[in-house]
Specification:
single chain; 236 residues; mainly beta; Jelly Rolls; 1 helix; 15 strands
Amino acid sequence: MKTTNLILNLAFVLLPAFGQAATPGADSPDSPEYQGEKWESGQNAGKGFMGWNIVTVGTDAGANIGDSSQAAMAINTPGGKAFRLFARGKGNSVEAYRTLDMPLEMGQSLEVQISVNFRSGNKGLDLRRAGDNQTIFNLNIGAEDYKVNLAATGNGSLGSEYSNKSVFTIVFTQKDPSGGTWKVSRSGGVTSVHEGSYEGVAAGLKFYVMDTDPSPENELWFNHLKISGSITSAKP
């Protein structure tokens, strides 16, 4: 009996509470929370998200806010700003985590736009699953290619053709408690659309850069982070 109760208690802790929705909202680097170019752990601007957690390794890695047109295709807000990550040289890395205030509910979507130029090292984003924070989708820019990894379907190259104005708009849509769909639309010199699916309930994102050459063209820029969609499942 004790063993059965323990298993049930663990299941309650580890499984996401489907039926409680993420708050529709958005985050913008124009928010007063990000005064100047300041962007660091604990800041929690916008609506629908928990605070940022930013982790750096090495002596030349970090995160701030600036003008994305300086080194890539502009994806700025009306205030001329975007989120920026850099990690210059081997052994340097930065990761920026953002958890939703609740996992996505059926019918809700999570969207973000990233802009990249050079492809040295590795940079990109992960979609993370509720309950165990495992990666259930990865878009990686590196090794002269743009690839989707760790998804349920649609993994592989999105096309390796280079453009110094590459912009990727990524949309995750939760279909039911077992998973959802992803869509990556590329623009800026090269145009393509790729789609697939992921397993589990989406609960957050990780953005990262590691081991790039030192030029600013190797930075990762992202913006237009938002949660949208109606709640269609029945509530208890």
